[in-house]
Amino acid sequence: MANYSKTTNFGTKDTLPTGDSQKIIRGTEFDTEFDNLVTAISTKLDSPASSANVNFLQSGATAVSRTVQSKLRDVVSVKDFGAVGDGVADDTAAIQAAIDYVYGIGGGTVVGALNCKTTTTLKMGKNVIFSGGSIVCSATNAPIIQVDKDSLNFFWQIKDMTLAYAAQQTGASAAAIQISTTGKVAYEFLIENILVDKATYAIYLPNLTSCRAFLGRFVNINANKCSGAAFTIYGDLSGGANTTLSFIDCWSVQTVGSEIAGSSLCDIRNTQNVYINNLAGDHLQGATLAKFVSCSAVIDAMALESCDQSASSGLLNTYNFSGGNYVVGTLTTTDNNINISGSASASMVRVDSSAQVNIGLLENKNTNVTDTSSDNYYTISIDGTGFVRNEQWKSTGSTPAISTNEFAANVRKRVERLNGIDYTRFEGSKLVIYGTAAPTTGTYAVGDQLINTAPAAGGNIGWVCTTAGTPGTWKTFGAISA
Question: DSSP label at 373?
């Protein structure tokens, strides 16, 4: 048969070759049967079910045979369900059908396609991996992807994708990925290698009833032109705090010359065990650029560069820590522009609501401050209830001289250490602070001490509070001989 094809004319081969005299067959009959056979095989192979009749064997001593159909169904493409991917056809239904199919069989991988168009939110659920391709969403003030199919959504992933809006979004619900919603919990998930464009938020966990997330990782996310805080994590404390969320190599950036007012890097709240390694922002313009509220966090490095902040009242914050405990390796600002007027003030680091912040390196590079206000720019400002400890402070260029906020009561005793110099310590329940004169502001208890940082012959070692109050009664102790 190897010498024949469907086009062979067997009618010319009626003369039998030399051989067995019992081989009697007419070439025309064989020609007809061969054509029938080829037609049957072609029809079989053209059938959608034909892959079920072809076997596949993986290499390896213990590999088992299965059909090609079974092998190809390991991964589902959105194009299997009709996605066009030309940027014109509405691919929403096809993509959702692919996700629903994988979700319905208990999990698997959905492969996206380039240049898909959607017109409404795609819904994800547990055990689904959505990977690859690009989506442009024409909806307004709605998430592109929302994870909400189950009350408990776990073991899901979104990765290696571009998620963009057709027009710039500013509404509160316009998130590239909303990781949970009312009454839902997201956990054991991964969002990785994502480019976001024109969203309000790149990643969003809203403040909705019983909405929480834990054991989640956000890796290599580039948030381009987000109008709000690119990484916004709220959640609902009534259902329990979020916990164990990691941000690794994530970035929020604005287009130079077209920066969006109010844009910022992150607003992370009600979350315990936050881990951050390289979270950065560029050309942002919010009143607070990086905000943490009621969290515990280990932050290896955060940086904000070429950001513009301006106000005629209130307080501008580059970094703001409110409530909770924070251990920070490095906080950096580079080439930022601060413009305060009227009654406004500004801080590189703002600490309030009893936050405890331990900063290794605080580095301020080339900050340009325009100050016509009745207040000042401060390296660190404290509302009187927080504590700060800093081992090293560095400045280059036009950065203002190091300063701490002195406009609020108790501030002096809230800076435990600044640039490696002790300001405050506790000995048992008693406070020990440092200065050149007894306090005139702030509230103190009996036994609190102030150590004289400029001792002189005939003077004293320090002052001690003998009557509690604001500032209380202070007496010298430790006479120094003349």
Answer: S
